[in-house]
Specification:
heterodimer, A: alpha/beta, 20 helices, B: alpha/beta, 6-stranded parallel β-sheet, 5-stranded parallel β-sheet, 17 strands, 15% strand
């Protein structure tokens, strides 16, 4: 290198930025999927696939390396500080301390020969990396909470839409934790009932318990808060209870832990909702596994109601939802070891349209008294439960207005998103705007609301319509994972917008920038597989209560 | 048979209390129990076993090599499962366990935790149920102090040389035979597979009444050419030896009998070597049914077990095929693999085919959503009995096996075997457990898990215990040391066939 700088290659210009690498990873991953589909049909694509996978591996490794760098993390902190200048003095020192601590820990560890998961692990000398698919855990944009979890299947499914979820498995958990920076490490005791973490904390698979201890050690060193959620009886997982002191926060489902009530992960409205509610085939839904003695006492009280035993929520959530939807009422009561009813059970039944009777000693029912007081009939014993259930069956299903109000309440306070926001606040990682209640904006309004509304004519001010209706549309769309929600029959929505109200997910609209949905576009969307939902019109008047879910 | 003398260490004053239920059961089950308040008389030569709960005393005794194999520590109340999990393993524990013949505990949870914490504790830790101690103690005494079968009535011990480079398929049988006063065993342990100390062998061949070569290797060739006239020579032949030329150099005229582990391999041996048919007999591999007999953990019927995935001909890919079919029916099915990984064997990892195979398998797990949460690779280790508690079905999908002990272990644990028809499988396992293809295998597992799993596993357990348990196999080995076994009646190893209704008689108790 001479003094003038001539002959010096600009190294930085040749190094792609992390954003470019993210885009490259996404592009290459899409390409891999496309080629995989073609592989069976076309000869000769195998070689291209291998080449593309190799490129993906390299790009992923480069991205992982870039994201793991202190400079990148520092940049992220500064960007966050610029976005939230008022909170910056609070969190910037904390984040810098965390970064410094994590780096110091990493530096004290012996160097590994392999640093990336997908770069020919046997060539790096560490074939154990073959267990890890790091690309599945990369987070392109930190727009949702990053959760590393040891979770039951149903919980994972419920959390997935609201988070960047890294579901840890015994064979890759430590590797993944070493390479991602989650907002929280969440361990749920129900994960030990079946699946890869079965018998965790039961002393029946000590290998898992020791692995969990290692994960907790890592989380502490990396300043990642750890949360233990005990949603099974203590007798099932005594080892987890013994380990609870190693967690930063312990939540329980069977007794009060936070907010004066038992912890609930919240209800996933995608799994449990009243959309498509049919006529009730049963009078009462009751969780399976009620103790025989309890059942004997209960039988006389609820005779002659038709009782349906509900399946395990974690095995097939959709079956449980169908069971709740098929019953007029649900009876919740504490299991043998629990002090209170299972809050998740109550919320799921409510979300599916069932009336809920909960057997709770009055002093312990405070968790049901806040926003849910109008929807849950709390009784003191089985005899009273029988009378309350008969009354609930006599009253039948909730009217439309009440049902919509309940759904709004659940979405705002008791949904997975709402509870996740609470959890992150509890561990000092909130707030996340993406977890807030669904907001609807006019199409040309700035901001980051996830939903855009169109009313009658494209561009008409949406304020003329009841904001509650727009929210109902957005919530209904969330329930069934739709991108477009409207009022009227699906034919009307997809063929004409006249007299209609349309709420469109902003991401769907962003795919067609500058285009206002009209009937042509909606028809095209429908043909293209976009998911749409409508509220049936009963009183199609602007500004008034309309529709039934 | 003389009753065993068991010294029970009961120190005066404060100290860890020995559970009376254990001591009382020992006396009830025929042992001579002698209370010893001090340490000095514990190590006497006439004592067959020392029972103590005093960790300090046990640790001191463990230092004395004379005591190795005679210590029976009782670890109930001296250490907790929480301590072992959170506090680490105390330094004395591995020392005491390694010196012990059996480790007794009245806490079933502690048993499993010990085995998963201290490798030496596996296969020697015994749970004595406080509510029903006698059946376990009686079985324990039968194992520790077995009665002779073929060797009964001998005036002088039979002198036996056991030769070979590796005794992993014979360890428990040797311990069983070694406990018999009617036999004296000396080992000709060859350090390197194909070479041995001929001088040492020359001395041993002069001493021995019988030579038992565990492998049909160059050592067996040497003994077949150097044994004394009239001296009995028995050679075991495994899958590996059949596929090299060592058999050609064995002087078969000097071999009394060749022992194969399955009728199928006996037939292959005869076909390849042309040896006289009456010289090739079958004795199956053994399993330790006493150790494997444990209660299943909740949900075990959804646990699919696969033991040993190396080399690739074990066909883990077919197990994945089965699992995919099962998961489509119920998401609770999980495949647990208990094995070393291909890269743990340097000789194996040098083979490109093996590397490609495991890369494809693990890639398939990552790329297949239905498998991603359904496959767990557990650490290889001796704690198979504890591991099997969560397993309801043990798969065997190999291209080729000489025996495959995994399904037999599973059967003794109360799981069901599920095999694909590798050559000879029907000569070891009942056809009820053998399926034409992965579809049939998945169909059977799913229908059984949802129905007759409880009753069928009783039958499977009975079959395996009656055919493969250590005393059964040891009795056959004992017999072949002194007489030729008949060739007839060995179409299948199983001695207890399944009835058409899927039961056997009598059914054993299940936990």
């Amino acid at each position: 290198v001479n003094g003038t700088g001539e002959g010096v290659t600009d190294q930085t210009a040749a190094v792609p930025t992390s954003e470019e690498l993210v885009a490259e990873v996404q592009r290459l991953r899409a390409e891999v999927h496309r080629l995989q589909a073609l592989l069976a049909e076309r000869e000769g694509t195998a070689q291209r696939l291998a080449q593309t996978e190799a490129e993906l591996a390299k790009a992923t490794a480069d991205l992982a390396k870039a994201r793991a760098s202190s400079a990148y993390e520092l940049g992220q902190i500064m960007v966050k500080a610029a976005k939230r200048p008022t909170r910056a003095p609070v969190f910037v020192p904390r984040e810098l301390a965390r970064l410094w601590s994590a780096r110091r820990t990493a530096a004290s560890r012996p160097a590994r020969t392999g640093t990336a998961a997908v770069v020919s692990p046997d060539e790096t000398g560490d074939p154990t990396l073959l267990h890890v698919d790091l690309s599945a855990h990369l987070v392109a944009a930190h727009d949702r909470p990053v959760v590393a979890g040891v979770l039951a299947r149903g919980t994972a499914g419920a959390l997935e839409p609201a988070t960047h979820l890294s579901l840890l498995r015994p064979n890759d958990a430590l590797r993944i934790m070493e390479r991602i920076r989650p907002d929280v490490l969440l361990v749920e005791s129900a994960a030990a009932r079946w699946g890869p973490w079965v018998h965790l904390g039961s002393y029946g698979a000590l290998e898992r318990d020791r692995l969990l201890l290692a994960l907790l050690d890592h989380a502490r060193a990396a300043a990642v808060p750890s949360v233990l959620w005990l949603d099974t009886p203590d007798g099932e997982n005594p080892g987890l209870v013994a380990m609870s002191g190693r967690f930063d926060l312990v939540l329980r489902t069977d007794r009060a832990t936070v907010d004066g009530g038992p912890w609930s992960a919240g209800v996933s409205l995608r799994d449990f909702h009243p959309v498509g509610l049919a006529n009730a085939e049963h009078d009462v839904a009751l969780a399976a596994g009620v103790a025989p003695a309890t059942m004997a006492g209960l039988a006389a009280a609820i005779e002659p109601l038709r009782v349906l035993e509900t399946p395990d929520a974690q095995v097939r959530p959709e079956r449980l939802a169908r069971a709740y939807r098929s019953a007029t009422a649900h009876l919740a009561m504490p299991t043998a070891d629990a002090v209170t009813s299972n809050p998740d059970e109550v919320l799921r039944a409510l979300a599916c349209g069932a009336r809920v009777v909960a057997v709770e000693p009055s002093e312990r029912a405070s968790w049901l008294e806040k926003d849910l007081a109008a929807y849950v009939n709390v009784v003191g014993d089985h005899q009273a439960a029988g009378a309350a259930l008969r009354a609930a069956v006599r009253d039948g299903r909730r009217d439309d207005a009440s049902a919509r109000e309940l759904l709004r309440t659940l979405r705002d306070h008791r949904s997975v998103q709402a509870r996740l926001a609470t959890l992150l606040d509890l561990v000092g990682r909130g707030p996340y705007t993406a977890l807030a209640q669904p907001r609807v904006e006019p199409p040309d309004a700035p901001g980051d609301a996830p939903w855009v509304a169109f009313v009658d004519e494209p561009g008409q001010a949406m304020l003329a319509v009841d904001p509650g209706l727009l929210r109902d549309l957005a919530i209904t769309a969330e329930c069934v994972d739709a991108e477009v929600a409207g009022v009227g029959s699906i034919t009307e929505v997809t063929t004409t917008l006249a007299d209609g109200v349309l709420v469109v997910r902003r991401a769907a609209l962003d795919a067609h920038p500058g285009v206002v949905p009209d009937r042509v576009l909606l028809t095209e969307w429908a043909r293209g597989g976009r998911r749409m939902v409508t509220l049936a019109v009963t009183t199609p008047t602007q500004g008034q209560e309309v529709g039934a879910l | 048979v003389t009753a065993p003398l068991i010294a029970v260490h009961r120190p005066v004053g404060d100290g860890p209390a020995l559970p009376d239920i254990v001591i009382d059961a020992l006396a009830r089950c025929g042992a001579v129990v002698r209370n010893e308040p001090g340490e000095d008389r514990l190590a006497r030569g006439d004592v067959d076993a020392v029972v103590s709960a005093d960790v300090a005393v046990l640790d001191r005794l463990a230092m004395d090599e004379q005591m190795h194999g005679r210590l029976w520590p009782v670890l109930s109340g001296t250490i907790s499962v929480e301590d072992l999990l959170l506090g680490g393993i105390p330094a004395w524990l591995p020392r005491v366990v390694e010196a012990a013949r059996y480790v007794l505990t009245t806490d079933s949870v502690l048993r499993g935790v010990l085995e998963q914490s201290v490798p030496a504790a596996a296969r020697r830790t015994v749970h004595v149920d406080p509510d029903l101690p006698d059946p376990v103690i009686a079985r324990l005494l039968e194992r520790a102090f077995p009665a002779p079968t073929a060797l009964g009535g001998r005036d002088a011990p039979l002198r036996v040389v056991v030769a070979g480079h590796d005794f992993k398929f014979l360890t428990a049988v040797l311990r069983h035979l070694g406990a018999l006063p009617q036999i004296e065993i000396r080992m000709d342990h060859v350090a390197v597979f194909a070479r041995h100390d001929e001088e040492a062998s020359r001395h041993l061949v002069q001493w021995a009444d019988v030579v038992f070569c565990e492998w049909c290797s160059p050592v067996a060739i040497w003994y077949s050419r150097n044994k004394r006239p009239g001296q009995r020579l028995v050679v075991r032949l495994h899958r590996m030896e059949l596929y090299n030329d060592w058999t050609e150099h064995v002087d078969i005229d000097n071999v009394n009998q060749v022992v194969c582990v399955s009728p199928h391999y006996a037939r292959l041996t005869l076909a390849k070597t042309g040896w006289p048919a009456d010289k090739v007999v079958c004795i199956p591999n053994y399993v330790d049914a006493f150790d494997l007999d444990r209660p299943k953990l909740p949900g075990a019927r959804f646990g699919i077990g696969f033991i040993g995935i190396v080399p690739a001909r074990k066909r883990l890919d077919l197990a994945f095929d089965v699992l995919e079919r099962l998961r489509r029916r119920d998401p609770r099915y999980t495949l647990f693999v208990k094995s070393k990984m291909p890269w743990d064997y340097p000789w194996n990892w040098r083979r490109k085919q093996e590397r490609d195979s495991i890369r494809a398998l693990l890639g398939r797990v990552q790329a297949t959503p239905v498998l991603r949460e359904a496959v767990v690779f557990d650490k290889h280790g001796p704690d198979v009995s504890a591991w099997l508690r969560k397993i309801g079905f043990v798969l065997s999908t190999s291209d080729d096996e000489s025996f495959h002990v995994g399904p037999a272990e599973g059967m003794c644990s109360g799981a069901l075997p599920s095999l694909l028809p590798w050559p000879g499988s029907e000569t070891i396992y009942d056809r009820r457990w053998i399926h034409d293809d992965v579809d049939a295998m998945a169909d059977d597992i799913h229908s059984t898990a949802g129905g007759s799993w409880e009753s069928l596993r009783r039958a499977a357990k009975r079959q395996a215990e009656a055919s493969f348990d250590i005393p059964v196999v040891a009795a056959l080995i004992e017999r072949v040391l002194v007489e030729d076994l008949p060739v007839q009646g060995h179409e299948i190893c199983l001695s207890v066939p399944l009835r058409p209704d899927g039961s056997v008689t009598p059914e054993p108790g299940l936990r």
